[in-house]
Specification:
49% of the residues lie in helices and 6% in strands. The protein has three domains: 174 residues, Orthogonal Bundle (Arc Repressor Mutant, subunit A), CATH 1.10.10; 88 residues, Endonuclease Iii, domain 2 (Orthogonal Bundle), CATH 1.10.1670.40; 110 residues, Hypothetical protein, domain 2 (Endonuclease III, domain 1, Orthogonal Bundle), CATH 1.10.340. It has a three-stranded antiparallel beta sheet, sandwiched between helices. The chain has a two-stranded parallel sheet with strand order 4-5. Strand 1 and strand 2 form a beta hairpin. Helix 4 crosses helix 5, helix 9 runs antiparallel to helix 13 and helix 15 packs across helix 16. The protein is globular, with a radius of gyration of 24 Å. By secondary structure, the protein is mainly alpha-helical.
């Protein structure tokens, strides 16, 4: 390679940076809070380099990184890295990490054993914390003991690490909403107990967190069910949803946009749908067929707010409905449904307030619960179970 330099490039998780020299890629930087912060970070790391257009071999590396973070299968093992200044132990760790397939993980201890240094898990963690080749050396695929995420030095910390793993799991077809949360539940519980003594007392009374995901064959199927169930008791909603499904006796699997589009208004209304729900299902089906609703794989690449904004455009779908999707279908760790009566009532019970908290009061207290407000919400719901 000639003409060393660096450049920024856009990916599904934000604007990354890449630097190159005569010996290959010498650094890859994950997104900072803003593109300008990423540029400053690159300039500080590589003061001798200037921002410039990447040569073809670097552009090919960029294309592969972008493809991987888009959730599509690609191999980064052939990207040439310049490890001239990398310590020998770190180099062994990085070379081993590059053999971990997308969507798979190893623990720090397993990496240490595989490079012939059993007992050096902490040293492995320190080496990965200084990894200059983010993504290409996939340090996000190395976890702490027991499947806990461990640390992550990039902007966004552990949540960025988990987001990258979700993208890769979706790409490999490993995420299907089969009950597996997108975060470490034990770690979440430990973190909340330490962060808020009053919440910890509620958690002790309730016992273990039993939060589980509902099966999610598709975003359409999940939202369609949510629309039917809105403002109805569970038994009545289940009956109507079963009647809608029965309109397509030859169909197998989950409800699809094509089925709703093909059914007549008379049939759908005859199944028990109100006019509002009929129109909402039609709108959802049309948007799915037009490609404006992300697929289950695509949605894993979006942050919570982006999902709320995209799905709230559907007729009959509001913020609360999307938040329930985020919690119970996608297993997102940091969702706080401020408009949910059960959460607010549970807060009043757990924290001994005479009145339900305002959104501002609830949100202020919940700062302690980040990045696991989903689990805190689950416990607040349980506080109302004895009423």
């Amino acid at each position: 390679m000639t003409s060393p330099g660096f450049t920024l490039f856009d990916t599904a998780i934000g604007r990354c940076g890449i630097a190159w020299g005569k010996g290959g890629i010498c650094g890859v930087n994950l997104p900072e809070a803003t593109p300008s912060a990423t540029r400053r970070r690159m300039a500080l790391r590589y003061p001798e380099l200037i921002e410039s257009a990447p040569p073809p071999v670097v552009q090919r590396a960029i294309d592969r990184i972008v493809t991987l973070l888009r959730g599509e299968g690609t191999d980064l093992a052939q990207i040439a890295l310049d490890m001239t200044l990398v310590p020998a132990f770190h180099r062994r760790v990085y070379e081993l990490a590059r053999t971990i397939p997308a969507g798979k993980t190893l623990s720090y201890g397993e990496v240490a054993s595989r490079i012939g240094s059993p007992g050096a898990a902490r040293a492995v963690g320190q080496a990965l914390g200084k990894n200059p080749f983010a993504i290409v050396v996939p340090c996000h695929r190395v976890l702490a003991a027991g499947g806990k995420p461990g640390g992550f030095s990039a902007n966004g910390g552990v949540e960025t690490k988990l987001k990258m793993l979700r993208i890769e799991r979706a790409q490999r077809g490993l995420f299907d909403g089969d009950g597996e949360l997108g975060f470490d539940l034990a770690l979440a519980v430990e973190t909340l107990r330490a962060a808020d003594p009053k919440l910890a007392r509620l958690m002790a009374r309730v016992g273990p967190c039993l939060l589980q995901l509902k099966t999610t064959p598709s975003i359409f199927a999940a939202l369609a069910e949510s629309i039917v169930y809105q403002q109805l008791h569970g038994k009545a909603a289940a009956t109507i949803f079963a009647r809608v499904r029965a309109l397509f006796p030859r169909a197998r699997g989950a409800l699809t946009p094509a089925q709703i589009s093909s059914a007549s208004e008379a049939d759908l209304r005859g199944a028990g749908l109100s006019n509002a729900k009929y129109l909402a299902l039609r709108d959802l089906a049309e948007r799915c067929q037009a490609g404006s609703i992300p697929t289950l794989s695509q949605i894993q690449k979006l942050d919570d707010q982006a999902i709320i904004e995209r799905l709230s455009e559907v007729r009959g779908i509001g913020r609360w409905t999307v938040e329930m999707l985020l919690i119970f279908r996608l297993g997102r760790p940091d969702v706080l449904p401020l408009d949910d009566y059960g959460v607010r009532k549970g807060f009043s019970i757990a924290f001994g307030t005479a009145e339900l908290p305002s959104k501002a009061e609830l949100e202020a207290r919940a700062k302690r619960w980040k990045p696991y407000r989903t689990v805190a919400s689950w416990y607040l719901w349980r506080a109302t179970d004895s009423l």
